[in-house]
Amino acid sequence: MKFTKSHVATLVGLLLFLCPLVAHGWGVDGHLTVCRIAQARLSDAAANAVKDLLPASADDDLGSLCSWADEVKFHYRWSSALHFIDTPDNLCTYQYTRDCKDENGIKDRCVAGAINNYTTQLLSYGNDAPSQYNLTEALLFLAHFMGDIHQPLHVGFTSDKGGNTIDVHWYTRKSVLHHVWDDNIIETAEQRYDNSDVNELIDALQKNITDEWADKVKTWEACSSGKLPCPNVYASESIKAACNWAYKGVSENSVLEDNYFLTRLPVVNLRLAQGGVRLAATLNSIFG
Ligand SMILES: [Zn+2]
Description:
Blueprint: H1 5-22, H2 28-39, H3 44-53, H4 68-71, E1 85-87, H5 96-99, H6 111-122, H7 135-148, E2 155-157, E3 167-170, E4 173-176, H8 177-193, H9 198-210, H10 214-221, H11 231-246, E5 254-256, H12 258-287
Parallel strand pairs: 1-2, 3-5
Antiparallel strand pairs: 3-4
Helix pairs in contact: 2-7, 2-9, 2-12, 3-12, 6-7, 7-12, 8-12
């Protein structure tokens, strides 16, 4: 087929239309970090189940497919609402029955509902009858959404789409607030402290989990209901962090640099670690 000017215009239009939608989720390194932290904490039973469910091409590395759910968003249109939660502007609270719905008001279609749903599906693993679900996809969705729900701006305000419509400068570059939290803070941290190597970031967080945060890990893993996971707790923490840290002091065209970076990086590190620890605890509970 020969491309005419109008084809090119259509393509450019389509790309411009699609690009803002891509910005839903920790970036690749954020998701990879959550999955790598989790996989290293699995019980033998959970590690075997994960190995069994992963496609051979993943070579038993859950991290390599942790962003799969972002890649299939356009193929599985129905799944794009499952990466986040929109809460009422400026309330800084989250309630499942009020907020867990998609744009059309269909309930349970949000990241908390998706975590519950894919957990339920995975519980059919190992049953005598073949599962009615695609459990490989259920595992990949669950691993991804446990990351997303810990990104504070994935439980953001409705009118700015979790910071996606707030233009800012990240140092000298143009960005949007949502992307700052998905990618920019992590990238800048990797450049400054980790030789631009995500593996060094993962090592540093793993060291904190066994060291500085060791006392807190038990409380991260537990749910007051006694039943894992508890996405409503994770979502409530995220909107609190979104208000206290992500949105705080930011307005349209704010220039965000060291002041913002140095005070927010600890929040990003904490949320990545919590996401990994809780994904592991959830998989251990499902497959245990
Ligand atoms: Zn996502």
